[in-house]
Amino acid sequence: MTKRVLLYATLAAGAFVAVFPYLLVVLTAFKTQAQLSSTEPWLPGLPPTTANLTEILGGEFPRYILNTVAMTALLTAGQLVFTTFAAYAFARLRFRGREVLFWLYVATMMVPGAVTVIPLFLIMRELGLVNTWYGLLAPYVLGTPYGIFLMRQFFKGLPAGLEEAARIDGAGPLTILVRILLPLCRPALGTLTIITVISSWNSFLWPLIVTSGDETKVVTVAIASLKVGIGVDYNLMMAGGLIALAPMVAVFIFFQKYIVRSVVLTGLK
Which CATH superfamily is 60-268 part of? Predict the structure, then answer.
C-alpha cells in the first residue's frame, strides 16, 4: 500500500508539473492587465474577460492561423508521399549503394537542426526563396530522415511473400506499393502523420528566419512578435497561445488512440 501511495503521489506531482503551464496560459488569457498585476498567476481573474481573445482575433491573427494550417497540411502531405516512396525504395528495391546511401542519410539525424539553419538560409537566399512559401516548405516537404527510417523499418517487417505473390500475378513495384503494402502500413502512416502535424504546427526557428511578411507568417512567429518595445503584453501572448494550443488539444482528444500507438510503434522500431 505504501508503494502504491508513493507511486500515485509521484504520478500526480508529475501530471501537475506538466499541466500547470497550460493552466497559466488559460488563466492569463482571460485576465485584464490590472488583474494580471493584482492576482497571483495561478488564480483566475474575476470577473474573467474575453477582451484579449477579441482583440487578437480582430487583427491579422486569423490569417496567421490559416497560414499555419496551410503549411502543416502541405508538409504533412509531402512527408507522407515522398517519405513513403523513399522508404519503399530503401526497403524493397535493390540497387547499388542502397545501404550506404541509406545510412549516410540517416546519419544526418545526429546533426542538430540549428547547425543547418544558416546554410539552408543561404541556399534559399541564393535561390531567391526568402519570405516565400517555397522557401518555407522546401527543406522539409520532401521527407525527413526520421520519417524515412520509420517507414523503411515498417516495410522491412512486412512478409516478403506478399510481394512475391503479387509479382507472379504481374504487378509492378508501384502497384505492389499502392494496392498491397500501403493498406498494411496504416499504423506507421498514422504515426508519421501525427508526428509531422505536431512538429509542423509548433515549428518556430525556420519560419522565424526565412519569413518576414504577413503573407507567410505562421502562428508561432506571430505570438513571438506580440512583444512590443521593451515590454511584453502577456495577456495577448497568452490569448494567442491559447488559440494556437486549441487545435493540438483537439488532435489529442480525437486521436489519442493513434498517439499512444505511435509512441509504442516508434519505441519498438
Answer: MetI-like (1.10.3720.10)
Structure pTM?
0.83
- Tell whether the model's pLDDT for residue 266 goes beyond 60: no
| HEC sequence for the chain | CHHHHHHHHHHHHHHHHHHHHHHHHHHHHCCCHHHHHHCCCCCCCCCCCCHHHHHHHCCCHHHHHHHHHHHHHHHHHHHHHHHHHHHHHHHHCCCCCHHHHHHHHHHHHHCCHHHHHHHHHHHHHHCCCCCCHHHHHHHHHCCCHHHHHHHHHHHHCCCHHHHHHHHHCCCCHHHHHHHHHHHHCHHHHHHHHHHHHHHHHCCCHHHHHHCCCCCCCCHHHHHHCCEECCEECHHHHHHHHHHHHHHHHHHHHHHHHHHHHHHHHHHHC
Q: So what's the pLDDT on residue 269?
A: 46
Looking at this protein, which amino acid is placed at residue 115? V
- Output the nine-digit C-alpha cell for 243: 488559440
Q: Show me where the domains of the chain are located.
A: 1-49, 60-268
To which residue does cell 482528444 refer? 253
Residue 263 pLDDT greater than 70, yes or no: no
pLDDT at 201: 92
Average pLDDT over residues 152-176: 82
